[in-house]
Design a protein that fits this description.
GO terms for molecular function: acyltransferase activity, transferring groups other than amino-acyl groups. This protein has about 140 residues and is an alpha+beta fold. The chain contains 5 helices and 5 strands; from the N terminus they run βαααβββαβα. The chain starts with a strand and ends in a 21-residue tail after the last helix.
Length: about 140
């Protein structure tokens, strides 16, 4: 498949929401206006991959200081379009748009994919307000 990569526009939102729903990610489907605000916020680079019919088959959004560091907040590829190089091409398209020299990310489901890219592995944490850690 020859995907076309482009920056996010509001018309892409239903496709992005559908991808999030398919992944079981509740935040964007729960509030479309908030999702649009996130995807167009200051320091945010949001990109999509479109199929031959103009349908969204992948998206990513990154937060960046515009100089050194970008953080990959979300990346999803439709199950029907995986393992075709779309995620890699989407990141290659997004990177120069961020203005950053590197992309940092956290993953719990796509280690093999990210390990296939030039990288340095390090440990990281996510801290949520009100979350109470347990002694496990």
């Amino acid at each position: 498949m020859n995907a076309r990569y482009t920056q996010y526009e509001r018309a892409h939102l239903p496709g992005i929401v559908a991808l999030c729903e398919a992944e079981g990610w509740p935040s964007f489907p729960a509030d479309h206006e908030r999702a649009h605000a996130v995807l167009t916020g200051p320091g945010v680079t949001s990109v999509v991959a479109l199929d031959d019919n103009g349908e969204v088959v992948a998206f990513a959004y990154l937060l960046s200081d515009g100089h050194i560091q970008a953080y990959l907040a979300e990346l999803a590829v439709a199950a029907t379009h995986r393992r075709q190089g779309i995620a890699r091409a989407l990141l290659e398209y997004a990177m120069p748009l961020t203005g950053a020299q590197r992309i940092d990310l956290v993953t719990d489901t796509a280690q093999d994919f990210y390990a296939s890219l030039p990288h340095h592995t390090f440990s990281g944490f996510r801290i949520y307000p009100g979350w109470k850690p347990t002694d496990s």
